[in-house]
Amino acid sequence: MTAGSLRTAPSTVSSADGTTIAYQSIGAGRDLIIVGGTLRTGADYVPLAQELASSFAVHLIDRRGRGASGAQGPDYSIDKECDDLLAVQAATGASAVFGHSYGGFVALEAARRTGLFSHIVAYEPGVSIAGSIPMAWAPRYRELLAAADTRGAFASFVRGIGSLPRPIAMMPMWYLRAVLRLVLRKDRWQRMEPLLETNVAEHEEEARLDDGTVERYRAVRGRVLLLGGSKSPAFLTTELLPALQQVIGESTVEILDGLDHFAPDEKAPELVAEKVRSFLLANEVTTHSRWR
User: Fold this and answer.
1) CB-based contacts of 282: which residues, under 8 Å, 6+ apart?
2) Distances (CA, A) of 70 to 39, 89, 115
3) From CA 129, how far away is CA 239, in angstroms rounded?
4) Distance of alpha carbon 3 from alpha carbon 84, whole angstroms
């Protein structure tokens, strides 16, 4: 597919607290915002944006704490993330949003607080239910970061979050560190390493809002597509997504065969893009009107 080029300089907006939020745009058509996950920058979603650019004007956010955006800040919260997303929405006029992992959490939180988004796609959103996203790893993680052991901190996080296959999770820590060093491309690690500090604060927000239910998302309005991969952990897919579907009025769940948590940004952006495109364009037709 031939798509436009990303702007060499990002556009910026000021969030409610004055923090600069940067985003880059590609394509033409109705506006769609992409919100990425933890340990990710907007650049990680360029392949996904390029797949969608023939149908939509896609806006890739650098969430606070990364890229050309301002710092996460000491008083960081999900409320500020929602403010950031809404600032980009105001600048672009977008009524559709795609969120991956923590970005899906941000998208759902923003959608329940405002009716500005008529179409929401969340791929394995980072919503914790009764501790499904654990936090026991956080104290050791902070210790290792304070000691400038970024590789060790990352290994402790990957093991502690509970998403690894059991044989890998049971590896000695020194061996797990070596494996992760081998499987992570150099360019990926260079983008990821500066984000290790933001990672723990974001997971703490997921835990803070965990009241044992997803009842708060009953307030979400608009059409919602909840996506997951068949190779992802159950707490992100077969446990979480049906629970969200039960409380969100106009919602659909689809589990994509053979995909895992990293499909949108790493493994299969073209397959995820096709699901997003089909959902958005089909809903545009069935409502007999363009997105508002």
Assistant:
1) none
2) 16, 18, 26
3) 9
4) 27
Distance between CA 156 and CA 150 in Å, rounded? 10
Residue 127 to residues 108, 109, 130, 214, 241, Cα–Cα distance (Å): 9, 10, 10, 8, 10
Q: Which residue's structure tokens are 């983008």? A: 191
Question: What is the rounded distance in angstroms from the CA atom of residue 92 to the CA atom of residue 102?
Answer: 22
Instruction: Determine contact, residues 274/256, Cβ cutoff 8 Å.
Output: no
Phi and psi at residue 180, to the nearest 5°: -65, -35
Which three-class secondary structure state does DSSP give residue 62? strand
Vertex 279: Cα angle to 245 and 99 (nearest 5): 65
User: Cβ distance 58 to 26 under 8 Å?
Assistant: yes
d(CA 286, CA 246): 22
For the chain, how many residues are written?
292
Cα–Cα distance, 276 to 123 (Å, whole number): 10
Cβ atoms within 10 A of the Cβ of 114, count?
Answer: 14
Domains of the chain: 11-129+212-286 (3.40.50.1820), 138-203 (no CATH)
**Tokens at residue 172, please?**
């000695």
> How far apart are the C-alpha atoms of 169 and 198, rounded to whole Å?
23
How far is the C-alpha of 55 from the C-alpha of 75, rounded, in Å? 38
Residue at 155: amino acid letter: A
Q: Are 95 and 225 in contact (CB under 8 A)?
A: no
Q: Give strand ranges (E) for 124-216.
A: none
Dist. CA 31–CA 41, nearest whole Å: 20
Whole-prediction pTM: 0.92
Tell me the per-residue pLDDT of 27-59, one tens digit each, with 9 for 90 and over.
999 999 999 999 999 999 999 999 999 999 999
Whether the pLDDT of residue 287 is over 50: the answer is no
Residue 256 bridge partners (DSSP): 229
**Do residues 238 and 229 lie in contact, with contact meaning Cβ atoms separated by under 8 Å?**
no
